[in-house]
Amino acid sequence: MKDIIRIAIDGPAGAGKSTMAKLLAKEMGIEYIDTGAMYRAVALKLLRSGTDYNDPEALAAMLKDTDVDFSGGQVMLDGEPVEAFIRTPEVSETASASSAVLAIREKLVALQRAMGQRKSVVMDGRDIGTNVLKDAECKIYLDASPRVRAERRAKELAAKGLPCDIDAVEADIRQRDFRDMHREHNPLAKAEDAAVIDSSYLTIEQVVSVMKAVIEERCR
Ligand code: DC
Predict the structure, then answer these.
(1) pLDDT tens per residue across span 25-58
(2) CA–centroid distance, residue 127 to ligand 1 (Å)
(3) Ligand 1 centre from 10 Cα, in Å?
(4) Does domain 1-30+120-215 have CATH number 3.40.50.300?
(5) Phi and psi of 195, rounded to 5°?
């Protein structure tokens, strides 16, 4: 195996990227960087501060004073651990819309590149293999059908005692995919040299095992 291995995992929301990336990073003893959490942290700050991301001056002023980092595997916003606040529907919606804004992407991509420069990482997101770590040793595009992703989401909600309309969840997923895939800057796309894994009908163990085989083959 090479000394430094950067594993880029891209794909749509709900395909299982973060579950797989966390498991892989733990098994390999390397750092996991959840870039979606970084866009969510910025969205949280936009909401808390009432900053309009369509106002370039206000946004620039906010970003100048914003630090997003990881400490002990936790995403930190200006030194505060914010994991507990970034998974709400409001933050998800704001992250989805504001992640299309160039100034936000430029800031976070620079931070992500610095994080993945000199050490082994598993980094997941939408533009890791195509943009952030174009020279990653191993690129994986993890996909799953919109229906299966909606069913997984419905199960998570049911486990919390929250019933939902599965067709509405699927429609929402399709809309987010469209937005992620059609934005102007760094849209979600499969890198040419990425291995594609469809997790629709695989268990978590099966996906991890296929990923490990891909990593073994590409990083030997
Ligand atoms: O993976 P997630 O749902 O936590 O990501 C939150 C939002 O951030 C999502 O709408 C897509 C966006 N995102 C992005 O544009 N680029 C990335 N590298 C990661 C996430």
Answers:
(1) 999 999 999 999 999 999 999 999 999 999 999 9
(2) 9
(3) 10
(4) yes
(5) -85, 130
Query: Superfamily for 34-119?
Result: P-loop containing nucleotide triphosphate hydrolases (3.40.50.300)
Q: Which is the closest atom of ligand 1 to the Cα of 183?
A: 15
Distance from the CA of 1 to the center of ligand 1, in angstroms? 30
For ligand 1, atom 6, the nearest C-alpha belongs to 36
- pLDDT tens readout for residues 146-183: 999 999 999 988 998 988 899 999 999 999 899 999 99
Q: Which atom of ligand 1 is nearest to the CA of 17?
A: 1
**Residue 77 vs residues 34, 137, 173, 185, 203: alpha-carbon distances, Å:** 14, 29, 27, 24, 34
**What are the residue ranges spanned by the domains of the chain?**
1-30+120-215, 34-119
Q: Which residue's structure tokens are 């195996």?
A: 1
